[in-house]
């Protein structure tokens, strides 16, 4: 599978430039698209899913033009939107049959086999006859994956799927995505750095409609090795001083005190310990560099 996004731009009616000449190449496996709220992730996902057209640029999926050949693309693509929203009083079993018919799977035997297999795969078999409106957040997301997998897509797109899930449900959901990612290309759009670190051999960071970085999480982490330093800072005043004089990547509260992470080629000062780099460092560093380069984007 190969998805080629070339020079895609989109400006909404209200003047917001959501995508700015964005170019990205996505191959097999699980691809993480990481970016803060408003980065343009959903705009890009909707464009790939044929739900909105770009103003300019091209998107091709295995050579098929996503803008001009929407029906062909829809046949090989599954999509779990950010707000899936449709949880009627229908059971998961009935809903999947209904959606399968809409996808053109009209032979009853084939459809039953497919729906049953999907309910097993997403661990919803036991709850398959229960009304979707009674499902928990995690079950709803797993149902969202089941419907995205109908008719054996080559590519599935999942937009911010773990937001709002508790840790156990999130874990279960990520495991499901990982197992799917072995056979089908998955684009995982998220603002949660951990999701990408745990799942994706390749990723891109986007902000303000632009690609800031494209690569593998482990390579980007290696590039920062030895340059991340950490220290506990007891007072707000001291923290302000550090922020003014050093390249502070992030601050976290640990038992009510600030733990500061600093980017520096050599030790930034007394009390700092070298620490392993995290993907979150890569993410924040890219976002802060971007903010500096284009102040208007902040
Ligand atoms: N239909 C629309 N009309 C006008 N502006 C829009 C529309 N959809 C998105 N936007 C704006 O475009 C920008 C990008 O939004 P988008 O939803 O693509 O980002 P995102 O990265 O998915 O963020 P989030 O995680 O908040 O959904 C934002 O400034 C958003 O307010």
Automatic annotation (TrEMBL):
Organism, as annotated: Terriglobus aquaticus
The organism's taxonomic lineage, starting at the top: Bacteria, Pseudomonadati, Acidobacteriota, Terriglobia, Terriglobales
Protein name, as recorded: ABC transporter ATP-binding protein
PROSITE patterns referenced in this protein's UniProt entry, alphabetically: ABC_TRANSPORTER_1 (PS00211), ABC_TRANSPORTER_2 (PS50893)
Keyword presence, Amino-acid biosynthesis: no
InterPro entries registered for this protein in UniProt: AAA+_ATPase, ABC_transporter-like_ATP-bd, ABC_transporter-like_CS, P-loop_NTPase
Domain ABC transporter: residue ranges: 3-233
GO MF: ATP binding
Sequence similarity: Belongs to the ABC transporter superfamily.
Protein origin, superkingdom: Bacteria
Pfam family, one: ABC_tran
């Amino acid at each position: 599978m190969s998805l080629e996004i070339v020079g895609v731009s989109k400006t909404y009616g209200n003047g917001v430039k959501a995508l700015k000449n964005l170019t990205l190449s996505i191959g097999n496996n699980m691809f993480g698209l990481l970016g803060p709220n408003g980065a343009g992730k959903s705009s890009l996902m909707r464009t790939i899913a044929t739900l909105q057209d770009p103003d300019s640029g091209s998107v091709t999926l295995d050579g098929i033009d996503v803008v001009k050949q929407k029906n062909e693309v829809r046949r090989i693509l599954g999509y779990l939107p950010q707000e899936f929203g449709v949880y009627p009083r229908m059971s998961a079993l009935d809903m999947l049959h209904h959606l399968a018919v809409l996808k053109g799977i009209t032979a009853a035997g084939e459809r039953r086999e497919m729906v049953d297999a999907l309910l097993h795969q997403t661990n919803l078999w036991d709850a398959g006859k229960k009304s979707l409106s009674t499902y928990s957040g995690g079950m709803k997301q797993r149902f969202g994956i089941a419907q995205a997998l109908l008719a054996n897509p080559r590519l599935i797109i999942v937009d911010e799927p773990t937001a709002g899930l508790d840790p156990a449900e999130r874990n279960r959901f990520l495991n499901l995505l990982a197992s799917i990612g072995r056979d089908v290309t998955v684009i995982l759009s998220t603002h949660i750095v951990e999701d990408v670190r745990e799942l994706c051999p390749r990723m891109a960071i986007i902000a303000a409609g632009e690609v800031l970085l494209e690569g593998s999480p482990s390579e980007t982490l290696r590039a920062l090795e030895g340059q991340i330093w950490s220290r506990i800072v007891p007072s707000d005043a001291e923290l302000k001083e550090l922020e003014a004089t050093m390249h502070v990547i992030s601050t976290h509260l640990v038992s009510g005190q600030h733990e500061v992470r600093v980017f520096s080629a050599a030790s930034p000062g007394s009390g700092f310990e070298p620490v392993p780099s995290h993907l979150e460092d890569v993410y924040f560093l890219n976002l802060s560099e971007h903010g500096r380069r284009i102040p208007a984007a902040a």
